[in-house]
């Protein structure tokens, strides 16, 4: 078996064309994040349900959102919006962790929260997140888990892990920024 990042679909492998971001490939890569943090599963389920119900109208994330816009309830659009926000938070935190090898994950995730999710949360949720940041795993434990082979084989080197993680994060960041722009320009986040 391979280390974690090699065992899940990478955001670097998600096809992005002029037409948009491939829905199924994006969901497969996002599912890999669930294995890391298990927080986004409900939103992935909402987007996947829309894709499964209307695959021809959902081949890209953009088409999925546009085709759901005429409906009274835009469950997948809202789920995708929150999934993207969560992914932006995770991506920024891991980018901060990558940029500062001496910083613990709790500090990187706290800084990321300030710049990503905090503006969308009320007072109560902000307090919950503040407490949750203290529950972040230690940096060394987290990176060891990412480098480890779940089947018990040898771990990848720190350099290989760092290279793989940087590629994964760059691709995720690109997709998230693209979709944030799409939501903003199209007014797709209104009402949530």
TrEMBL record:
Gene3D superfamilies: Glycolipid transfer protein. GO terms for molecular function: ceramide 1-phosphate binding; ceramide 1-phosphate transfer activity. The gene is PLEKHA8. The keyword Transport applies. The keyword Transport applies. GO terms for cellular component: cytosol; membrane. This is Pleckstrin y domain-containing family A member 8. Residues 41-147 form the Glycolipid transfer protein domain. InterPro entries: GLTP_sf, Glycolipid_transfer_prot_dom.
């Amino acid at each position: 078996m391979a280390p974690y990042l090699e065992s899940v679909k990478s955001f670097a492998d998600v096809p992005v064309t002029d037409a948009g971001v491939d829905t199924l490939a994006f969901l497969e890569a996002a599912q890999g994040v669930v294995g890391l943090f298990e927080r986004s599963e409900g939103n992935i389920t909402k987007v996947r349900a829309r894709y499964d119900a209307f695959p021809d109208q959902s081949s890209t994330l953009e088409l999925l959102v546009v085709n759901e816009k005429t409906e009274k309830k835009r469950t997948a659009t809202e789920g995708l919006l929150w999934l993207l926000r969560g992914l932006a938070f995770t991506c920024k935190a891991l980018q901060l962790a990558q940029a500062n090898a001496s910083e613990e994950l709790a500090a990187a995730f706290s800084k990321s929260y300030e710049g990503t999710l905090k503006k969308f949360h009320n007072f109560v949720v902000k307090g919950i997140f503040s407490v949750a940041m203290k529950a972040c795993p230690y940096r060394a434990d987290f990176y060891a888990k990412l480098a480890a082979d779940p089947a018990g084989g040898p771990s990848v080197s720190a350099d290989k892990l760092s290279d793989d993680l940087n590629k994964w994060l760059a691709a995720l960041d690109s997709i998230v920024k693209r979709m944030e722009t799409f939501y903003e320009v199209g007014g797709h986040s209104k009402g949530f």
